Amino acid sequence: MAPAWLKNPFFTLAISPKASAAEVERAGQLLSSKLAAGSEAIKTYSVLGHRFERDDFEIKWALSELRDPEKRLLWEFLFFEPRPPKARHQNALDFAKVLGF
Amino acid sequence: MEDKSYFVGFDFGTTNSLAAVFNGQETKVVPSAQGGVLTPSVVRISGKGNVLVGQRAARYLDLDPENTHREFKRLLGTLHAIDFPAAELSKSAQELVAEVLKCLCLDVEREFGFSPAQAVITVPALFEVPQSRGIIEAARLAGLNKVELLQEPVAAALAAGWSDENLREKWLVYDLGGGTFDVSLLETQEGRLRVIDHDGDNFLGGRDMDRAVLDYVCQWLAQEEGLHLELSNPDHAQALKALARAAEEVKIELSQVSESFLCLPRPLTLDGEEYLVEVPLSQDQVGQLVQPVIQKTMDITLRLLGRNGLVTQDIQKVVLVGGPTRMPALKSFLANTFDAVADHDHNAMTLVAQGAALYAAMSNLPALSQPVTQQPHANRLWLNHPAMSADPHPFVIGRVAESLADEHPHQVQFTCGDWSSELAEFDEEGLFQVQLHLTKRGINDFKLRLLDPRGKELLCSPARITIIYGLSLSDPPLSRTIGVALADGSVQTYLERGVPLPVKRTFVHKSIGLIEAGNAESVLKIPIVQGEFDHAHLCRLVGSLQIRGDQLEENLQPGSSLEFSLSCDRGGVLMASVFLPSQNRVFEEVAQLVIAKADPDTIGEMVASLSNRIQKLQTQAFAENDKRNIEHLMQSENAIAGVLNDLSRLRSGDEDAGQRAIRTLIETEGQLFEMETASKLTAFQDQNELEIHNANSWVSHFGSLPEQKMFQQALVALEKAEAQKDHAGLARQMKIIRKLANVSYYRHPESWFWDFEHLAAKVDEATDLRKAHDLVKKGRLLWEKGDLENLKPIVNDLAVLLPRHTESVRSYDSGIR
Q1: Is B475's CB within 8 Å of A64's CB?
Q2: Whole-prediction pTM value?
Q3: Which of A15, A33, B129, B442 has a CB 3.0–4.6 Å from the CB of B384, allowing a cystine?
Q4: How far apart are CA B543 and CA B565, in angstroms?
Q5: Residue B475 has pLDDT above 80, yes or no
Q6: Is residue B303, in this structure, part of any structural domain at all?
C-alpha cells in the first residue's frame, strides 16, 4: 500500500488547492462520470512515484473532505508540490507516524 | 413520454406507506387502488393463501387479527417469524415488507403505465445496519433490481426546499412517525442541501402515544368498570390489541375535535363476561397523556442542537413530517419552543415519498433500467451526466456503444436554444467529454449532434438529454460509529459517526490463532459493531465476517496479516471484505447480519445486574454529594422501569418491545460504565503519571520540534480533561502521548536490541516454540554483529508469536488484533 501520509484530496481530484468550491464539485462529477464510463486512465494516479487507486469511494471521500471548510484548510496546509527536498521528506514521514498513519 | 423521465420514491412507514413519482418537473403522489394516498402497512394471508395488502387487509385487523399483521418495520433485520396460522405459513418481516412494496409498484403501474425496476426507498436516519439490509432484501423480493436508501428527514428536507434559491439557512426536520422519531439539522449553502447532524430514537413514535392512551384507558376500565387487563397475561392479548387500535383511532380523531369516545365495535369478552367499552376522552386529556413522549422528542432535539452549538432561536425553518405531528398538543409545543414557524405548506404525510422521488432523479436512478425507446438505424451512444445539478456547468461523458456500418462518429456537440457547446472529439479510450451550460432553474433540454470526419451529421440515439438545474444534496452523514471488535475487547473504529456517506475504510490486522485448512470448525471471526464506545461489549453487534478452515487451501498461521475493508453506502447498507495477502484470497460474505432475538430470561438477568450497579453508584454519589451523578442515576432507574414494562409486553408476544428493552439496557450499561470509570479517575491519574514522565523524557531527548510541540499540547489537553473528569478525553490524550513516546523511543540506537532481549526472555510462552527459538537464535547472531536493520524484522516476527491478552466474551469472540 502507498504511504497514507501522501494521500491528499487535491491529488485525488487532480485539482489545485486554489480551486473554488464549484471547481471541486465539477472535478468530482467529471471523475465519477469517467469511472462510470469505464475509463482505465483515471483508475490510478501517482504521487512521488507511489500509485494510489481512485474509485468511487475515494472520489466521494475527497469531495466530502473538501466540502468541509475546516478540513479543507488542513488539506491546503498539508498540500505540497510533489517534489520536496530529501531532508524535509524524512521529517514529514516521522511526523506522519506521530499522527498515526 | 419517455420512460426515463420518471423517477420513483417509496416511503415505507411503520403505519402507512406510499409512493411518489417525479417526472422532471413536479412530484406526484401515487393514489392507491382504493383511491386514497396512504397504503396501510398491513398484510393479511387467508386460509387459501391469498395475500391482501393495505386498506383491504386493514379491515381484517379486528375480524381476523391472527392472520393480519402490522408494524413489522421494526422487525426488519431480525429472524422473528410472523405466523399466519390459517394458511399454515410463517413469514419474515422482509417478506411482508416486500408484499407492501409490490402493492405500491402495482399502484405506480396502474397510474403511469410502467412497473418500476429501480427506486429510492426511505429509511429512518438511525436505522441499524441489519434493518437497512432487510429493506434491500425486501426490495429484491418485490422485484426491484436496484434501490438506493435515503434517510427520511433528508427526503423531507429535499421535498420542502429543492427549488429554493440563494438560501443560507439552518433547518430542522422533525419527523415523528408511527414507530420512529428522527430529527435532523440541515443547512442550505451554495446550492447544496447538507445534513449537518441527526439524532433520534428507533423506538419512539405515534405508537408510544397510543400506548399512553391505552394505559389510561386500562386504568379507567379498572376503576369504572372493574375490568382489569394485564399486559403480561397472554389471554388478554387480543383484547389489548383491539383497545390499542381504538386508542389510535380516537387519538387521531381528537386532533380535529375537542371531545370523543374510545369505543369498540363489539363488546369485549373476558373471563366469560362481556364488557361494553365506551371511554370518554378529550383533546386536552390526550395532550397531557402524550406529554412524556413529546418531551422525549424535545430532549433528543435539544441534544442535537446542543451538540452543534445551537439553540432553538438559530433555526430558520422547522419541517414537520409524520401523522403525529398534526396533533394540536405537539404543534403548540413546537410553536412555543421554536421561533421559526413550522412549515405548513407541505403535507406532513407525503413529504418523505416526494423527496425520495426527487432523490432518485438526483442519483440518476430512473424507474426503468432499460434505455429510452431507441431509434432504429441510429448510432447508439452511452451517456453519463447528472439528472439534477446545482452546478450550472456540469459535464457529459459518453462513448459510442454501437455504430452503424460504414459510419464513423468523430465529434459530438450539444445545443440548447441559442447556446452550443464546443465540438468534442473521442479520446484514445473512445470517450468524449463536453461541458454544458444550464441556463434556467428547472428543465434544460439539450439536443445532441453526432458528426463524422467530414462534418456530416449522423443519426444517434439518444438524440436528446435533460438536466434539471436545482438544489442538490450533499452526502448524508453516518448516524452511528461502526467498527470492528478486537480480541482484547477494544474497538477499532472504521467509520466514524457523522462521516459523509458513502464511505470506505481499510485497515490491516493480525490474526490471533491458527485456522486449520479443511476444518470447518476452525473459524476466524471478525465481529462488526455499531456504537460510540471503545469497549466492544458496550456496542451492538451488527454482523460478523467469518473465515472457516474449509474455505482455505492452506493453514492461516497466527499473526497473519488481514486487510479488512468496511464500506457503507448512502442508505447505510454495510459491506465488508477481507483480503489475505498470504493466500491471495478475498472473502466478502458477511454472516449473521441480523439482530439477535430478545430473550426474556437474558433481559431479566441484565436488569438485575444493572439494578445492582445502580444501587452501588447511588450510595457513592450520595456519600460524595455528587448531584450530577444522582440525577443521571435517577434517569437510569427510570430507564430500567421502562425496560420492565417492555419485558411484560415481550412476554405477551411483542418482539418489538423486546428489541427496545435490549437497546435501552445497552445504553444504560454504557452510561453506568462511564460513571464507574470516572470514579476510578484518581487511580488512573497515578498510573499515568509515571507513563507521562517517561514519555516526556523520550520526547525531550529524541523528539523533533513539531513532536515536542505536539507533546506539550497533549499535556495541556490532558490537564483540561482531568479537570472536567472527561475519561474519554483522558484516554485520547494518553494515546497521543504514547504514540509520540514510541516514535522517539525507536530513534534510540539500542531500542530494537532492548526489545529483542525483552521478547527473547519470554520465548517459552510463544505459540510456535520451534519458530520462536529459531528467531531468537538468528536474532542473537545479528545482535553480535550489530546488524540493526536485519534485527528489526526478527523482533516483529517474534512479537507476533507471543500471546496477547484476549477477552473472548467481551470481544464477541474476535480473532484479530
Answers
A1: yes
A2: 0.68
A3: A33
A4: 14
A5: no
A6: no
